[in-house]
Amino acid sequence: MVSPSPSAAPAVPGLLDAAFDDLGVTLDAEGGRLRVWSGAADSIELVLFDDTDLDWITDTAPLAPVGHGVWEVRSPRLRPGARYAIRVSGPSGPGNAFNPRTLLVEPYSRGLVSGGWAAGGGDWRSVVVDRSFDWGGVAKPKTPLDRTVIYEGHVKGLTKRHPGIPPALHGTYAGLAHPAMIDHLLRLGVTAVELLPVHAFASEPRLHQLGLSNYWGYNSLNFFTPHAPYATEANRREGPEAVLREFKGMVKLLHEAGLEVILDVVYNHTAEEGFGGPRTSLRGIDNRAYYRQLDDGTYVDETGCGNAIDTSTDAAARLVLDSMRYWANDVQVDGFRLDLAATLGRDEKHHFTPEHPLLRAIVDDPALAGVKKIAEPWDVGMGGWQTGNFGSGWSEWNDRYRDRVRNFWLSDIDYARRASTSPVGIGGFATRLAGSSNTFDQERGPLASVNFVTAHDGFTLHDLVSYDVKHNLANGEQNRDGADTNRSFNHGAEGPTDDEAILATRRRAMRNLLGTLLLSAGVPMLTAGDEFGRTQRGNNNAYCHDSPLTWLRWDHKPWQDDLVEHVRHLTRVRRENPALRPVHFARQDRVTPSASVMDWFDENGETMSAERWTSPAHRTLQYVAASTPETEAFNRILLMVHGTEQPARVTLPEIAGVSRYVSLWCSSDERPEAPETAFAPGDVVQLAPTSMRLFRAE
Length: 698
Fold this sequence. Notes:
nine-stranded antiparallel beta sheet, single chain, alpha/beta
């Protein structure tokens, strides 16, 4: 056997084979061409419907095999607005689910409508869509990752109750792009909106039986179609083309304002659930190729949702890649957060590998160059926790950061009240503050970490400091659902209280959590509503509530307005101080441009000793970060962190080149103070219990 020479070109992954090009409907002057992949089908049929009666079949046409599992047909009736489905016939046997009577959604559909139940079929029809749109020269903002501040929110929940948005736009794509919403985002200082799933999705039958619905949207019907219920009523009536135009119009207006759009995308499973569940698309086209199974046809469910997309097959992997290409280019979105991304990186033996062809193709694809790629680096399968393992080109949700920050400010404080001492020292917290170098290697650097304290899944920030346990009875599962380990602390009363001392301590805890998030190295992600302390009344799994419980309220009490001002102040401080935003980890053996050189001091202004890093009795530190300029002026900051409920006296350190420290922010203030007070090295600063204070070192 002859080994290839070192200069030989790398093999092209099978998922990039030209045979998979142009799947779905392509329009031309004579109508359209439909291409569908099924490696095991015996026959595929195009079924066309009346424009208004979706049970009235007006024409059918067989698809012809053209090689590599691709089937094709041309029809003059495949024109914009045409309603269609496919029917697929194939062999029986373990793992197959062919039924030639079932009407199926074509996987590359750009539009969907729901209609009556056809014989043996489902309730959805694909729609041919004219994808043209006038972008008016508006380009993507292309915000550098080190300057990115992500705001995670729900299209409907953000605007459903906003008094400054016309009622006709409440809960819609257009509502999100309304000047009132854009003004809030810009004033807050975020740079990107990360939207919970906007691919067409359906609620599970189980939720319908409980009188609930899938609000979050992690139950995709199709990977190319925007969810129509988020469009305005007028555009829903006009049809899928108008829905798509509204979505693109939202992206355009957000881009004009300098805001990026990141989509939370669910490629790991579909709404077809477990075997025997709905057969709406992939299951009826080629169940064996699209879903992970054992030899006997049993699903390998690594998602906890009944099925898992089998990206070890080229067709399934290409479907994911093509969907991302479509949204990034045709729809001009700026990035993706891939839900349960570990599932997408599993090979044919169901083992995760960071070198999975799909994961590498997503990073290397020229069509996705410059697009932000964020992995949720876990699933529920064996070996599913992969934080830190996704390789170059990826950023990852950092659950280690979340857990350590919550522990430090909440559960450690709770423990100390019970045991008179904290369980751990400050060293682990400091590592997270500085970019999680113990999780992400030197090559990837701190920007591989998407830092978050809360997300859509779990307690809100307010509830994190107000509840010890979850309160999910309204979900219909006897409080069994949702995480049991929340690392939360109610500070002395479960839920609502009139005790002003408890309320004040909770407010300071929220400011500490927000301050840590926005002053840490890495990419911060703020959950919508946390900036004003919204509550879900202790529900930490509100996925099934499309109601005022999950819709943001915009009528705020004074303390909520104060909290918003803290977030605005912190995002501005982050923008103005590049030492807080390192691109790379600093190295001891060389100067690294766009890194921050970090030094650590104790409360006495002395270099931190190993004993003080780990001692539960010493939870106060001074963190100094000095930038190594590349594109911005030199900058140095000092952050004090004090993690006990006793006040502290802290001596500012003597550092070569530093003549004064200018106070920029303090978490013990109910509202950010305007004056920038200066202190000299050696001065003593009083710190309130469990608090932070930031200085610029000059």
